[in-house]
Amino acid sequence: MASKQMALLLKNKFFVIITLLCFVVLLSQCSNKDKNLSKETTQKDTATCSSKKINPNGDSELALLMRKMLQSSASLKEMIKQGKLPDKFPEEFLKIHTAKPTDSETKKASFDGFAANYLDNLNTLYHSPKEELTQNYNAVINSCVSCHSEHCPGPIKAIKKLTITK
User: What is the spatial distance between Cα 140 and Cα 125, in angstroms, rounded to a whole number?
Assistant: First the structure.
């Protein structure tokens, strides 16, 4: 009888150990899922934060257009440094006069004059002879700095980095 009790006791211990092992494995799996979910949430929050750092008030039509202008200028800089002529005038930049700003106070009375100056300089650049590309490109960048000096100074540092120095 004692051997039967001993066998039953060993079976129970074995069952308890197996149950505990399964529980530990399941618990660790849940913990990994939480970590992965937490990592995904953190990545989404970081993306949202970095977008807010670029424009803490949200992405207005004008802000998005200005970002395209910045990207275009960076591409133009590299082309010009390689001695290549710019391709086609970016017609979408003509929307600068009508694009809605993040804050209506941003577009002061002088904004349209600055915008017209930018577009004139950009047009001149796109029709420049090769030997005047750098000078005309820098005139475009300077028109951006002038406008931002009065209307929205935040991006001036980034814009100035676009200047081509010889």
Answer: 8
* Same domain as 50, residue 65: no
Domain boundary residue, one of 54, 74, 97: 54
Domain shared by 33 and 106, yes or no = no
- The first and second tokens of residue 28, run together, are 């660790």
Per-residue pLDDT of the chain (166 residues; tens, 9 = 90+): 666 665 555 565 555 555 544 455 555 565 444 454 444 544 444 444 444 555 565 689 999 999 999 999 999 999 999 988 888 999 999 999 999 988 887 788 899 999 999 999 999 999 999 999 999 999 999 999 999 999 889 899 999 999 999 7
Helix axes 61-81, 133-151, angle to 10 degrees: 150
pTM here is 0.66
Q: Are 98 and 90 in contact (CB under 8 A)?
A: no
Contacts of the segment 23-27: beta carbons below 8 A, 24+ positions apart: none
Helix segments in the chain, DSSP class H: 2-54, 61-81, 111-126, 133-151, 156-160
| 131-162 per-residue burial string, b: 16 or more CB within 10 A, e: under 16 | eebbebbbbbbbbbbbbbeebbeebeeebeeb
Query: Do 50 and 79 belong together in one domain?
Result: no
